[in-house]
């Protein structure tokens, strides 16, 4: 049984350059600015700095901007995809990580411009190219949203 060496502190942080290498999302749909506390095949914390300049705030809602809940869940899924891509060392040329299920999703409080979302994602199960996660989107010490979701690596043309 092989054991992975502990990850050093500098290796637990993932910057935007690496995120762009690891997942195919781009503006305006890239919803993770950086990540920290990466633990291979175990957990990650994605960071999304929510600004009033986000395109969805033009219509959701102009007089009281609130980040759409489905985009919070997407940000959790993108954080999980970064965790998977780095843990499995996925060659993203010809492969994509797809979100395949969502369970027990709850929205607890609105996310507003100026908030920093901490996207805490932990692996519940991993079997080959399929991962099951539990995610919590936090603003300060409050849960904004939580869900269980799964994703898998799929070959793409």
Write the layout of secondary structure elements.
Blueprint: H1 16-22, E1 34-39, E2 43-49, H2 69-88, E3 95-107, E4 116-127, E5 130-139, E6 142-155
Antiparallel strand pairs: 1-2, 2-4, 3-6, 4-5, 5-6
What's the pLDDT, averaged over the residues?
A: 94
Total number of beta strands: 6
Element order: H for helix, E for strand = HEEHEEEE
Question: What characteristic shape results from the CA principal axes?
Answer: globular
Profile the largest sheet.
Answer: 6 strands, antiparallel
The portion of residues forming beta strands comes to 35-45%
* Uncertain residue segments: 1-6
**Helix content estimate:** 10-25%
Distance between the termini: 36 Å
The tally of helices reads: 2
The Cα radius of gyration reads 15 Å
Q: Structural class, please?
A: alpha+beta
Spatially, the strands of the biggest sheet line up as 1-2-4-5-6-3
């Amino acid at each position: 049984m092989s054991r992975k060496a502990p990850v050093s502190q500098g290796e637990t942080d993932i910057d935007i350059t690496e995120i762009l290498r690891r997942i195919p999302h781009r503006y305006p749909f890239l919803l993770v600015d950086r990540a920290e506390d990466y633990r291979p095949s175990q957990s990650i914390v994605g960071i999304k700095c929510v600004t009033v300049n986000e395109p969805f705030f033009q219509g959701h809602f102009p007089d009281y901007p609130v980040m759409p809940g489905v985009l919070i869940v997407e940000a959790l899924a993108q954080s999980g995809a970064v965790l998977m891509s780095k843990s499995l060392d996925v060659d993203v040329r010809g492969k994509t990580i797809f979100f395949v299920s969502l369970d027990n999703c709850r929205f607890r409080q609105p996310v507003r411009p100026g908030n920093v979302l901490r996207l805490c994602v932990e692996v519940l199960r991993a079997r080959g190219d399929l991962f099951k996660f539990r995610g919590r989107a936090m603003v300060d010490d409050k849960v904004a949203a939580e869900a269980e979701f799964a994703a898998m690596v799929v070959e793409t043309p």
